[in-house]
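Here is an idea for our session: we take a single protein and study its fold together. Which protein we use is up to you, so please pick one and set it down. Once you have written the record down, we can walk along the chain together:
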Amino acid sequence: MAEIKEHIDKKKETDEFLAYKISRIFTSKIEIKELENFKILLKENQIGLNIGLYLNVNEETSFIKFDIITKFIDKNSNNVFIDHIGSTQFQIKTDRRLIVDDNEIDLPSNIFLELFSLSYTHSRALLATELNPSIYKNEFFIPVLGTDELKIFVEKSKKIRSKK
C-alpha cells in the first residue's frame, strides 16, 4: 500500500492535518498524426507547443485529478499532430473542505504546487512512453519547468470543476 505523505501548513495559526497519496497515473487521451515533413518543421522552428492544466475535484471522494494537456502544432497549418492528456489522481486527507464557496480549491499553495509538479512530471513520462512506438520517438518532449516557471503556470491555469 502506498504511503501517505503528510504536510502541515505552517502559515496557518492552527495546525491542520493534510495528507495525500497518488491513487492513479494514466493517459486520458492520446492522438498522434504522423507528419512526413516534421523534421523540416523542426528545422524551420515551425512547431508550436500548447500546455494547459485542468482540475477535477470530487469532494465526496476527496479525489483531485490534475490533467496536463499537451498539444504539438504545425504552425503553418495550425493542425494539432500530437494531442495528449496525462492525468494524475490524488486522494487527499484533510480537516478542511477542498472547495471553498467561490469555487476555488482550498489547499496551501505549496501543497498545490507540489501536486501540480508531480502531475506535470508524470505527464512528461507518459507522453514519452506514448511516443515511443511512433516516428516522434526521441523528437518531442514536454519541457522541464523550474520552480518559478511552475508557479507562474499554476497562477495562469486556475480552471476548476467540482463534483459535489
Summary: Residues 66 and 116 are 7 Å apart (CA to CA). The beta strands are 5-7, 18-32, 47-58, 63-74, 79-94, 160-163.
